[in-house]
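Design request, tokens follow.
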């Protein structure tokens, strides 16, 4: 697995932070004027941004994390749903499953009604892949979980088309089969910041599993693949004082100095 460079970390972290505001001026970050498509949820709110430039190989898909009461309630749907309908041989968190299959409201005149989020993203992304572009996926919180599932789905449809997956503050996604069959372990970086409680959820060991390489940003250092039980032990007392402060994207961006520019 290649190391994640500082400029890559910073770019994905900034894009994740900027996914939350309604307006995002993508041309300020090197993307073409026509190089952005947005995907909305059932309420018409933007949850995914697809960004690219004509002369760049990489397309970046940014998944927004929970940003409404209904999204947070879906996080409580901790049972698992089978993904065989996607052609994937594993089960994932029922809330993540519901987010992918919810109806996506039209964002452009040519968008049709009655299309779910997953299909809407396929319609935008697959033509770009057929043009020869490769895709990087990134997301914060539940958006990171969505990024992992859809990236694996894309890799199944178009082998070697996924460049990397970078998630921030991501909860666990699926069952043991997900952990075992996920195709992108060598390209997935799971960033955990200090004492972020969300990275330990759902709280069911051996029922939910993470994938990829964990990079733990803690006490001024970066630790690779630190066991969950060790992170949990170091974090327990701090949780009693400030359990959610480390989940903010601003905290992840401040830690960009962990990565070198080589």
């Amino acid at each position: 697995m290649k190391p994640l460079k500082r400029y890559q970390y910073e770019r994905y972290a900034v894009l994740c932070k900027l996914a939350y505001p309604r307006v995002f001026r993508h041309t300020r970050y090197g993307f073409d004027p026509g190089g952005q498509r947005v995907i909305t949820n059932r309420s018409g709110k933007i949850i995914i941004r697809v960004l690219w430039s004509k002369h760049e190989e990489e397309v970046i898909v940014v998944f927004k994390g929970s940003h409404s009461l209904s999204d947070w309630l879906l996080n409580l749907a901790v049972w698992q749903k089978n993904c065989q309908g996607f052609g994937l041989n594993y089960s994932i968190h029922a809330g993540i499953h519901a987010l992918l299959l919810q109806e996506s409201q039209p964002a452009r005149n040519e968008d049709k009604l009655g299309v779910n989020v997953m299909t809407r993203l396929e319609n935008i992304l697959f033509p770009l892949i057929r043009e020869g572009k490769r895709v990087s996926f990134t997301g914060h919180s539940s958006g990171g979980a969505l990024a992992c599932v859809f990236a694996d789905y894309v890799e199944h449809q178009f082998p070697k088309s996924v460049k990397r997956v970078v998630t921030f503050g991501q909860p666990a996604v699926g069952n043991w089969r997900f952990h075992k069959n996920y195709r992108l372990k060598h390209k997935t970086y799971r960033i955990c910041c200090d004492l972020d409680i969300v990275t330990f959820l759902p709280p069911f060991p051996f029922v939910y599993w993470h994938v990829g390489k964990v990079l733990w940003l803690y006490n001024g250092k970066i630790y690779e693949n630190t066991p969950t039980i060790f992170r949990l032990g170091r974090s327990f007392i701090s949780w009693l004082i400030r359990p959610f402060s480390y989940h903010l994207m601003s905290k992840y961006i401040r830690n960009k100095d962990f990565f070198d520019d080589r």
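Comment from the thread starter after seeing the answer: thanks! The chain is about 30% helix and 20% strand.
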